Amino acid sequence: MKLIISSVSGEPIYEQIKTQIRTAVLDGDLKAGEALPSLRKLAKELRISVLTVTRAYNELADEGVVQNIQGKGTFVMDKGNELMKQQLEAQVRTNLAEASRAAKAADMPLERLGEMLVEEYRAN
Prior knowledge:
Layout: H1 13-26, H2 39-46, H3 50-63, E1 66-69, E2 73-76, H4 82-105, H5 110-123
Antiparallel strand pairs: 1-2
Helix pairs in contact: 1-3, 2-3
C-alpha cells in the first residue's frame, strides 16, 4: 500500500491517511483480513509521528473500516459489516446528490437520470 502525504494540502495528515486507506478498502485494493503496516513502520515510511498514524488507525476503527487487534496489528474489516455498509451507503448518497445536482443543471428529466443509474449499475 502506497500512501502519498502532502504537507501543503491544508488537510491534516491523519485525515489524508484515513481518506487514502478508506478509499483503498472501498475500491477493493485492500481486502478483508489484510494487515495494514504497523504504526511504527508507516510513521517511519511517511516521516511523521506515530501518534498521527495512531489517530488515523483509531478513527478508521471507530468507523468500522479496520479492526485493531492488541499485539497483532490493524486489519481491514469485511465490507459486509454494518459500519462498513453505512460508510458505503453514505458514499453512494453523496455521489447521488452530486449526480442529481449535475442533472438538474443540465435540465435532465428525472426519468433519464434513473435510466442512466440503471445502466451504470448493470455495467459494473
